[in-house]
Every structure is written in C-alpha cells, then in structure tokens.
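Supplementary notes for students who missed Thursday's class. We covered one full example, reproduced here. Read the sequence, then the structure, then the short commentary at the end.
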Amino acid sequence: MFQTKPSNLTDGKFIDTNHVFFVKSVEGVTKAWERFGASRSFQATCEHFLDNLRRHFAYEEDVLQTAGYGAVKSHARDHAQLLASLEALLQGGLNATRGARFVETVQEKIFEHELVSDQDYWSLFENRDFTQGRGVQWAGYMETGVASIDAHHKSLAQYINRLAARIDEGTQSDLVLSELEQLYVYSVHHFDEEEDELQRISESPFERHKTAHKKLLQRLQATKSDVEQGDIDLRAVPNRLGPWLTKHITGFDVAAFHSHE
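Structure (token representation):
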C-alpha cells in the first residue's frame, strides 16, 4: 500500500516502501491497458496512478531536503519533467496512440528514474562499508565504457548492497521477497536497454548474450522461490546475488562493449 505520510523524514525506508508500491502500480497500469484499452476505466487508472506519483515525489523531496541531499532541486526538476510528460498525455483523454505512449513512458521513465537517479541519494541513509562484506564492491575492471550501462550496473550493485544491509538489520522474508521482485523488474528494464545498445553497435554474438540475460532472470526467480519456500537462509541471499551480477558483467558485458571501442 502507498504510504501517504513519512513516519520519519530522516529514514529512507519510506521511499523504498513506496518504490515497491510503484513497481506494482506500473504493472497495474500495464494490465489495465491490456484489458481495457483506450477507455474510461483505463483513464481512471492512469489518473489514480498519477495522483499517487505526485504525492510520492513530494514526500520524497521532503525526505531528501531534511536529510541534506545537495541535489534535491535538480532531483525535483526531474520529477516535474516526468510528471509533465505524463500529464500532457492525459490532457484531452487517452486515445489508442496516447494510451500506448502513456504506458511506454511509465514503464521506461519511472524505472529508469528509480534505477539510476534515485540511487544517487542512498548513501544518505546507509552507513555501511561493503569492501569486506557480503555486498558488491564496484571496481574499474567492471566498467564497459558505456556511461548509461555502467550507471545501471552500479545501481543494481547498490540495490543488492542495500538489500544485504536490510537483511542484516533483521528484515523479514516478506520484505525480502518484495525487494527481489523490485530487483527483477529493474533487471528486466536494464537488460532491455542493454540489448538495444548491443544491437545498435552490432554485437555479433547477440543471441548468446540475450540467452544469458534470460538465464539470469531465471536464477533470480529461483532465488525468490527459495525465499518463499524457506529453502535459503536470508543472510545467504546477497552472497548469491553478488556473483549473479558481477560474473555476468565481467564475463559478458565488458568484453561485448569493449570489443566495439
């Protein structure tokens, strides 16, 4: 459920809770489009989604302002631009073209914003060194040389690190499952963007790379299933996710992108 008021303006968990909610909300908008098409029901779903998004952005900005985030004004401008693009599509009603564009914008822009832009402020809420821990320690040899792809990779690494911190704090399995579902959605978005970039530069073994992405998603789902069934100690989840990400980056992505420099 969307949390309508931050219980603690210095606690990033409020933001994370609503990010989980919005992953499900984006799925709701997509399903409404598939079921109802350009209709009043779909319009109402989009308006409700946009109302919640406005409130979330406003509360997030309050939390970041209180926490002393230096780029809060720039972040707020990003929020305003995203809202304006969606509001423009809603004005005058959603026909087939505008409805499809609304769904596309929600899927692409919100996930991109959460995956990349929102990761920039998480150091305000986490006080943990992962150099010797169970998280992912980013290193120069993991960089592909493509700024957007590297930003995604770093964000996914940060997400795994935050999950490790939450588990160490005693997070229960239901929240871990929500976080894993969010990581799955972000990974799908990243893989789609990465595959588009690989096609653009004409990577020759593209199908092999695409197959590797499918296997990664299957492994992530298997981890989620293990948590659901109680077949894995929660503290072991980050140990599995770290190599899940880094081995693919170093074994596939770095070589693929550097070969086209």
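Commentary. Residues 144 and 257 are 6 Å apart (CA to CA). The chain has a mean pLDDT of 85. If anything here is unclear, bring it to office hours.
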